[in-house]
Design brief:
Structural class of chain B: mainly beta
Largest interface: A-B, 29 and 29 residues
Radius of gyration of chain B: 14 Å
Number of helices of chain A: 0
Number of helices of chain B: 0
Shape of chain B: globular
Structural class of chain A: mainly beta
Largest sheet of chain B: 6 strands, mixed
Distance between the termini of chain B: 41 Å
Shape of chain A: globular
Strand content of chain A: over 45%
Helix content of chain A: under 10%
Order of helices and strands of chain B: EEEEEEEEEEEE
Oligomer: heterodimer
Largest sheet of chain A: 7 strands, mixed
Radius of gyration of chain A: 14 Å
Number of strands of chain A: 11
Strand content of chain B: over 45%
């Protein structure tokens, strides 16, 4: 298994440009999520999905869109990049359990994004 | 909303010293607790987790953590650190009703001097 993979590893954008960060997992996990990591703030949840066709907002969803057409893929789209979106982005996945239970989340290697 | 606090932003130790990192959370119900580690240039890896049972949890690489429900704490410990423990450590909490959503603390950067 490759686990959770993310592309690209690094990206530089100009303000206003759009791009999609790719995330894929081959563990048949129902739950997938996107976090951003900023110094001193830990990881903050952007969007998550409990299965194909189902997505929901996390703590900091503004400026980001997601979709989940397959179990394996969970792309994150920046429609109009802003300098405030400069960050390291991590995708994670796990089995999706009923409320009251949870499972270990597996993280991808991250995408370092700079918006000028 | 639940929150997680890690008291130390930076810790500097010498090899063989003992390490303890504090983690407190704010949520009154059932919680699942995690410690993740991020080595320089790498992604997050799970160190240990607590779901239920014995509140003293042992993880990989000699780490352990103790869940004290009355103090809303889940502190991480290692009796004797190595240079290879240099990393950033994150405490994370999943509230029982929140499905798989994790709330992370701000992280603690640990530097172990050889």
């Amino acid at each position: 298994n490759a686990g959770v993979t993310q592309t690209p590893k690094f990206q530089v954008l100009k303000t206003g440009q759009s791009m999609t960060l790719q995330c894929a997992q081959d563990m048949n996990h129902e739950y997938m999520s996107w976090y951003r990591q900023d110094p001193g703030m830990g990881l903050r949840l952007i969007h998550y999905s409990v299965g194909a066709g189902i997505t929901d907002q996390g703590e900091v969803p503004n400026g980001y869109n997601v979709s989940r057409s397959t179990t394996e893929d969970f792309p994150l789209r920046l429609l109009s990049a802003a300098p405030s979106q400069t960050s390291v982005y991590f995708c994670a996945s796990s089995y999706s359990l009923l409320a009251g239970n949870t499972d270990t989340q597996y993280f991808g290697p991250g995408t370092r994004l700079t918006v000028l | 909303a639940q929150s997680v606090s890690q008291h130390n932003h930076h810790v500097i130790l010498s090899e063989a010293a003992s390490l303890e990192l504090g983690c407190n959370y704010s949520y009154g119900g059932t919680v699942n607790l995690f410690w993740y580690v991020q080595y320089p240039g790498q992604h997050l890896q799970l160190l240990l987790k607590y779901f239920s049972g014995d509140p003293l949890v042992k993880g990989i690489k000699g780490f352990e953590a103790e869940f004290i429900k009355s103090k809303f704490s889940f502190n991480l410990r290692k009796p004797s650190v190595q240079w290879s423990d240099t990393a950033e450590y994150f405490c994370a909490v999943n509230a029982g009703a929140a499905g798989n959503k994790l709330t992370f603390g701000g992280g603690t950067r640990v530097l172990v001097k050889p």
